[in-house]
Amino acid sequence: MNSDLLLVIGLILGVFSVPSIISSLSDGRAPRVAAFTLIAAGSLVVYAIQTRPGGYELQDIPAAFVRVLAMFI
Q: Which of 3, 9, 37, 42 has a Cα at 20 to 30 A from 58?
């Protein structure tokens, strides 16, 4: 799988899991599924960084989103 795709999926999962964690904590429930999703997202991001030669820098992230979007169009 493409490291750009893994990075984008991991970042999107991570962003979507944060509101779920906040909602669970505000309702007084344990954020089990949200925590698992956040761990999976972090694992995808770390794996993408390790598999790409030279890794990613902060300014490379928007270009990765564009490349992934271009793959599907």
A: 37
